[in-house]
């Protein structure tokens, strides 16, 4: 066997062992995620918004007030912290949100949810004790939004953008609960 072929086989073996070790100790890259990643995008003219999150399933469980406790910070999905990116200045509840990437956190309650846009990026949504990693000192804004009770069950946690009435909203729905966070593109954009 020539030297090139031997080196190639050694490199391939090292890569295979590296993938196996990464999969075993860090993240199982070979099995399907229980809460798959998803990306939601909104584009209008030159405005681009994006949410990257993980989508847990209901699977017959009671969700809000049980699996997701009331009055406690929720990572707003599963696994990694949910991120929100905007390429334009936005206005949410009177607060300007500059261009950039943020993390989204919520505190579900029976009739309202608190929604937080946080400036810090977190490597994961919760720590080793399953406590949300959000640090309040990095909150850019907090907004209260009313709960909309749904007649139909939403089986998988879903985040979307709704602009059907020219009033942009970031929506979140799961089980029989939906919320809408109104936002608008700032009329004053930096040059």
From TrEMBL:
Q: Tell me the superkingdom of the source.
A: Bacteria
Q: Note the Pfam families from the entry.
A: DUF2911
InterPro entries in alphabetical order:
DUF2911
Q: What is this protein called?
A: DUF2911 family protein
State the organism named in the record: Gelidibacter algens
State the organism's lineage.
Bacteria, Pseudomonadati, Bacteroidota, Flavobacteriia, Flavobacteriales
């Amino acid at each position: 066997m020539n030297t090139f072929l031997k080196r190639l086989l050694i490199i391939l073996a090292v890569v295979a062992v590296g993938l196996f070790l990464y999969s075993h100790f860090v993240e199982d890259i070979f099995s399907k995620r229980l809460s798959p990643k998803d990306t939601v995008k909104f584009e209008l003219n030159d405005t681009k918004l994006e949410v990257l999150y993980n989508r847990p399933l209901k699977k017959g469980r009671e969700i809000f007030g049980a699996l997701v406790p009331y009055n406690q910070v929720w990572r707003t999905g599963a696994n990694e912290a949910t991120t929100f990116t905007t390429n334009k200045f936005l206005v949410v509840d009177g607060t300007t949100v500059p261009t950039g990437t943020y993390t989204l956190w919520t505190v579900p309650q029976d009739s309202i949810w608190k929604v937080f846009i946080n400036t810090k990026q977190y490597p994961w949504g919760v720590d080793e004790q399953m406590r949300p990693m959000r640090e309040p000192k990095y909150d850019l804004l907090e907004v209260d939004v009313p709960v909309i009770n749904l007649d139909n069950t939403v089986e998988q946690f879903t985040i979307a953008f709704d602009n059907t009435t020219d009033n942009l909203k970031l929506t979140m729905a799961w089980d029989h609960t939906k919320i809408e966070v109104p936002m608008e593109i700032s009329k004053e954009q930096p040059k």
